[in-house]
Design a protein that fits this description.
8-stranded mixed β-sheet; alpha/beta; 7 helices; 8 strands; Rossmann fold
Length: 245
C-alpha cells in the first residue's frame, strides 16, 4: 500500500520495446503522438497518458491498437513539456510533483486537440481513454466536455476525482481487484455515487487478481496468469468505444 515514503506505488511494469507506427506532431502549444488507420474515418480517440508521460512505449502501443481497430488515435503531452515521472525519482517528492500536474486541469489542451482532430483529421465522433493519472482526467472530462462522446477510465485515481459523478457521457471504468493504488472500497463508493447521481450509461468492472497498470503496463507474453485479463480489459475498452462512437 501507499505510505509516506512512497505515496504512489505505481511501477512502470513491463516496459515495452516498441517504436510505434505513428508520428510526433505539434498541435498548438503541445506535442502529440498521432496514428491513423489506412482507411479514412471520422472517429477518433484521445489517449491520456499516466504519470510516466506521453512517450511511454506502452501507451503508444495502446494508441496503435486503437488504430488497428479503425480509430484515429492521438496521445498528447498533457504535462505540456514538464518532465514525466521517472521510476528512479524519489517517491518522497511525488506529492509535490503531482500537484503541478493536475488531472482536473486538462481542458485547455483537450480543446486544442479537439480542434486539431476536427480540422486536420476530419474527426466528428471523438472519445477519450486514460490510464491512472489519465483515467482521473477522463472522469473530469466526462463531467463537463460536451464535445466528447464517451470515455474509458482505466484505473483512474478515484481519490483525485471524489464527489464528481454527474457524468454527461457514457463512461466505462476499469479496475484491478488487487490494485494497491485504488482500494476496492473506493471502487464500491464510486459505484454507489454513480448509481445515485449518474443519468447516462456507465459500467464499473473489476478484473480478478489484477494489480495497478495491468491493461497497459503488463505484457501478455511474460505474464501468462494475467494474459486473459489484459486481453479482456483491452477488448472491453474497444467494445465500449465501438458502442458509443
Amino acid at each position: 500500500m501507499a505510505n509516506e515514503s512512497r505515496p504512489c506505488p505505481c511501477d512502470i511494469g513491463d516496459r515495452f520495446d516498441y517504436g510505434g507506427r505513428g508520428q510526433e506532431v505539434q498541435v498548438g502549444h503541445i506535442k502529440a503522438y498521432v496514428c491513423k488507420p489506412p482507411a479514412s474515418t471520422d472517429k477518433a480517440v484521445i489517449v491520456i497518458h499516466d504519470i510516466f508521460g506521453w512517450q511511454l512505449p506502452n501507451t503508444r502501443y495502446i494508441a496503435d491498437m486503437l488504430t488497428t481497430n479503425g480509430y484515429i488515435a492521438i496521445c498528447p503531452d498533457f504535462f505540456v513539456g514538464q518532465e514525466a515521472w521517472k521510476p528512479s525519482n524519489d517517491w518522497a517528492s511525488f506529492n509535490d510533483w503531482v500537484k503541478t500536474r493536475d488531472a482536473g486541469k486538462t481542458d485547455k489542451e483537450v480543446d486544442v486537440v479537439l480542434k486539431y482532430l476536427k480540422d486536420q483529421c476530419g474527426a466528428k465522433k471523438i472519445g477519450v481513454i486514460g490510464f491512472c493519472w489519465g483515467g482521473a482526467a477522463v472522469q473530469h472530462l466526462m463531467l463537463k466536455n460536451p464535445h466528447l462522446k464517451t470515455g474509458v477510465s482505466v484505473y483512474g485515481v478515484i481519490s483525485r476525482m471524489e464527489d464528481k459523478h454527474s457524468l454527461l457521457h457514457p463512461t466505462f471504468f476499469i479496475f484491478g481487484e488487487k490494485d494497491d493504488v485504488i482500494p476496492l472500497e473506493q471502487v464500491t463508493s464510486l459505484e454507489q455515487k454513480l448509481k445515485q447521481n449518474c443519468k447516462v450509461d456507465y459500467e464499473v468492472k473489476i478484473y480478478p487478481g489484477q494489480t495497478h497498470g495491468f491493461v497497459h503496463r503488463k505484457r501478455e507474453d511474460i505474464n501468462p496468469q494475467d494474459k486473459p485479463y489484459i486481453e479482456e480489459g483491452r477488448r472491453d475498452m474497444i467494445n465500449w468505444l465501438n458502442k458509443y462512437l
